[in-house]
Fold these 4 entries.
Entry 1:
Amino acid sequence: MKQSRMKQSRMKILLLSAYDAMSHGYWRKGLMNAFPENDWTVLTLPPRYISWRLRGNSLSWAWGERDTSKPAMTC
């Protein structure tokens, strides 16, 4: 009974990493490892075209078919 309540109260977090370079990946994995009790869903974009990414991230997310109902990525 106690475990079922715990699963229901897990916070769902959507983490968007629009420039998932190595340093950003370390940050993302560290954050997820620091709060393992949460239910993480991670969407990333490759570390390319930094000047475009600064302005066009929202377009990349909008045009990509992203299913956030899938289980979270594991570290």
Note: The chain has one domain: 2-63.
Entry 2:
Amino acid sequence: MTATATYHKRKLYVPKIVEEKLGLVDGDKAEIRIVDGKSFTVSIKRKSSPEDRLIERILKSPFTSKMKGKTLKREDYYDAGRS
């Protein structure tokens, strides 16, 4: 896959498709190595482990349950623990 990034005001902007394919999140770092005067390679240094990312994604996703009416997440967890 090839994508074009934009350099503007000392920042390199990564296309959304690249962000999604690599699973980039805020806090990830890009290590840039200059190969010669005209090219470079980029390696991603993850902020967190894949397991931590999965937990973050689960916690950010909307919670659905079969309970009637509106409830908060903590109420659902509390009720689930009582059964």
Note: The CA atoms of residues 11 and 34 lie 16 Å apart.
Entry 3:
Amino acid sequence: MQTVSLAVNAASSFTGASVAGVDLLISADSRNAKVIEANAFGDLLPNVQNQKGRSTYEEEVECLIKKRSNAEFQ
């Protein structure tokens, strides 16, 4: 899907970041998309949870903890 690769490419600008938030503007016919904003952290998403029942912020903290733990053992 073009939108996924567009978002992944934009997020890759944040080298070393565990997470990134990318906002896309998608055309009415869904044929074109543009990046309108990218953040090194996700936006405020109250009451939004992933499949594990964790919020955006809980998932970010978990990623950072895992990244730090992995770095300590290398």
Note: Strands lie at 21-26, 33-39.
Entry 4:
Amino acid sequence: MSAFWSIVCAQLINRATRRRTLTEFGRTYHERCRAILTEAHAADALAADQVHAGCKHPTWRAVST
């Protein structure tokens, strides 16, 4: 995690003895990452629909989480 923090150059998590919470930046970063993943899944689904529509034997399909 420290290697990731050095790349991001910001603290994402506040650590206490028994509790961890996201910093304001961490919350914003998480929201943006989730939006990117949502868009990527939508693009995969679109591609999979297109492949399945034009191919009798599709070689792959989108994976959803």
Note: The first helix runs from residue 2 to 8.
